């Protein structure tokens, strides 16, 4: 147990080990990814190129200018999606409560498409539009999902799916409305891609992760108590509505920043919290573990897309979507729902 002023953190050895292993896997996959490309870079030369002390200036330029922003964007977006999914699953008390399932990611994409298609905006404006779209969608879903003064988990998911379907239809209309060039750019962005990531894409999501995740960590104990039910949490001294509002705000900002950085990415926010819960064998919201798992999943998925023996670029969002669909089918099997009731938290 670690005490930091008024904050008390309960640290489990298994949690530390699993998180450390996932972080090492993410960094190792990122290092390997920086060796792949039209200019081969030996693995032993990657650290020197990252810090600008390699012998070959071309290697430094390729790593620092192209491959490092791509890898850091994957790490930041994956971590943001993992934590966002952990928050929503905890609040909804359901394994399907992730931003891509309940429509927040689609709504965030709507805000981005408005900027891309109608205004031809730059990455900074696209990021702001993404956050605005995510916040508006979250407000609508939370308002419609309220029941009896609180928010029911199943109601949140059903309302989110409906609102997400409407947002998806709006996205289709925006693609039809735009010019050929704008629609092509928007369609590529919608596929979820790490190609041509620049520091303007990477830095906002990294800054968001650095600022928001500590806030979520402070509130994680309250979120764990809220999983027992609003009435019990209030009896234990948790200000339920205020805590829920702050947590939803954090989750929406993280999901929106990740979407702005790499486009809509399926599966990561859904699977990362559940996978890390099973590895850590804990019922508490796995904030840091979900961040590490999300980063590892997205970096590995991007590495796999680069190593595929095909002549065209495969967007990482398509790869995670295929894997995520299979994972969702596995999660929805009736035998698993009966055998693992806690899996539907």
From TrEMBL:
Protein localization: Cell membrane
Pfam families, per the entry: FecCD
Gene3D superfamilies: ABC transporter involved in vitamin B12 uptake, BtuC
GO MF term (any one): transmembrane transporter activity
A GO CC term assigned to this protein in UniProt: plasma membrane
UniProt xrefs under InterPro entries: ABC_BtuC-like (IPR037294), ABC_transptr_permease_BtuC (IPR000522)
BP term (GO), one: siderophore-iron import into cell
Key words of the record: Cell membrane, Membrane, Transmembrane, Transmembrane helix, Transport
Annotated membrane topology: Multi-pass membrane protein
Segments traversing the membrane: 69-89, 101-120, 126-144, 156-180, 200-219, 245-272, 284-304, 316-333
CDD domains (UniProt xref): TM_ABC_iron-siderophores_like (cd06550)
PANTHER family documented for this protein: FERRIC ENTEROBACTIN TRANSPORT SYSTEM PERMEASE PROTEIN (PTHR30472), FERRIC ENTEROBACTIN TRANSPORT SYSTEM PERMEASE PROTEIN FEPG (PTHR30472:SF24)
Similarity comment text for this entry: Belongs to the binding-protein-dependent transport system permease family. FecCD subfamily.
Protein name: Iron complex transport system permease protein
The organism of origin for this protein: Microbacterium saperdae
């Amino acid at each position: 147990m670690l005490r930091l002023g008024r904050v008390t953190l309960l640290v489990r050895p298994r949690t530390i080990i699993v998180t450390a292993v996932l972080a090492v896997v993410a960094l190792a996959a990122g290092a390997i990814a920086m060796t792949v490309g039209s200019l081969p870079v030996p693995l032993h030369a990657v650290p020197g190129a990252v810090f600008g002390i390699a012998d070959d200036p071309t290697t430094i330029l390729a790593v620092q200018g192209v491959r490092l922003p791509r890898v850091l964007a994957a790490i930041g977006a994956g971590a943001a999606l993992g934590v966002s999914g952990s928050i929503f699953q905890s609040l909804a008390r359901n394994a399907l409560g992730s931003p891509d399932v309940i429509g927040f990611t689609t709504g965030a994409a709507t805000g981005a498409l408005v900027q891309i298609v109608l205004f031809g905006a730059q990455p900074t404006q696209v990021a702001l539009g993404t956050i605005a779209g995510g916040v508006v969608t979250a407000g609508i879903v939370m308002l419609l999902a309220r029941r009896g003064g609180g928010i029911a988990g199943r109601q949140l998911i059903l309302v989110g799916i409906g609102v997400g379907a409407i947002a998806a239809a709006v996205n289709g209309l925006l693609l039809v409305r735009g010019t050929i060039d704008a629609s092509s750019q928007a369609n590529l962005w919608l596929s979820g891609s790490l190609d041509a990531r620049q520091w303007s894409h990477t830095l906002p999501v990294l800054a968001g992760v650095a600022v928001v995740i500590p806030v979520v960590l402070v509130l994680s104990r309250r979120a764990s108590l809220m999983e027992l039910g609003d009435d019990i949490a209030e009896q234990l001294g948790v200000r339920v509505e205020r805590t829920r509002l702050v947590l939803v705000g954090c989750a929406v900002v993280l999901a929106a920043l990740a979407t702005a950085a790499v486009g809509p990415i399926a599966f990561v926010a859904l699977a990362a919290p559940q996978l890390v819960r099973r590895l850590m064998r804990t019922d508490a919201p796995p904030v840091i573990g979900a961040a590490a798992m999300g980063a590892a999943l997205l970096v590995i998925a991007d590495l796999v897309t680069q190593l595929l023996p095909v002549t065209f670029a495969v967007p990482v969002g398509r790869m995670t979507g295929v894997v995520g669909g299979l994972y969702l089918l596995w999660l929805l099997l009736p035998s698993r729902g009966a055998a693992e009731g806690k899996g539907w938290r």
